[in-house]
Structure formats: structure tokens, C-alpha cells
Amino acid sequence: MNARVIVGAATAAALLSGAAFAQSSTVNGAAGGAVTGAIVGGPVGAAVGGVAGAVVGTAIDPPPEKVVTYVREAPAPSAKVVVKEKVVVGQALPETVVVTPVPESPKYSYAIVNDERVIVEPSSRKVIQIIN
User: Fold this and answer.
1) What's the CA gap between 71 and 53, in Å, rounded?
2) Contact indicator for 130, 72 with CB cutoff of 8 Å
3) Which position among 70, 93, 98, 120 has the lowest Cβ density within 10 Å, counted as fewest Cβ atoms?
4) CA 120, CA 106: separation in Å to the nearest integer?
5) Minimal CA–CA distance to 20: which of 8, 42, 6, 37?
6) CB-count burial class (<10 Å; 0-12, 13-18, 19+) for 59
7) pLDDT digit string, tens, across residues 105-122
8) Phi, psi at residue 15, to the nearest 5°?
């Protein structure tokens, strides 16, 4: 019985990680995680999923529209930046990529990598949003 609960909780956490990246806030992440966890692991899964969803939901709150607009309209550098790794929300950019601060919004920086504009968290270099 305990093994099934542990396996259910682990499965819920694994399923939640993909689903939670689609969430845009702590509340939505927690609710989505709890529902997914309850379906897979029952009450224990709901508790684990809710906590994991809240953590992931907090980590990916979208930047304000003025930041997105600035990054969308910023001039592209003359030299293209290409990396082998796929640019993914939640993953850090390689150290070789130069990130540029967003004026008047010190919580955000941006880069243009593989012809994609990305908004990043300056301290961790983690991609917050890819602008299409």
C-alpha cells in the first residue's frame, strides 16, 4: 500500500511538472497540481501536487506587458547568436549568451537567441518567456 502511494505521488509530481509550466500563477499552479495529483495519487497525490504546482507556478509568472513590448521592439544585434541547445522556458541560457537589461525593469533582461526573442531573469539567466 505504501509503495503505491509513493509511486502515485512520484507520478503526480512528474505529470505535474509539464502541466504546471502552462500555468501562469501560483494559484493556478497549485489548483492544477492538486487536481492532477488527486487523479493519480488520491489525497496524498493532491497534497504533493498542490505544493509542487504552487512552486512551479510562482517561478514562471509572466513579465508585465511593458517589458514584453520593449523586448519585442528592441533592435536586434548585428551579430546573430546561435546555440545548439533548444531554448526552453524555465531553463537557463548558456553562459556564452549575452543578456541585455530591460531599462526601468531591473527584474528582467532579454536576449535574441536562434532568432527568438527571450525574456530572462538576470540572476539565474532562466528563460521566463519566449516571444514569437
Assistant:
1) 28
2) no
3) 98
4) 11
5) 37
6) middle
7) 999 999 999 999 999 999
8) -65, -35
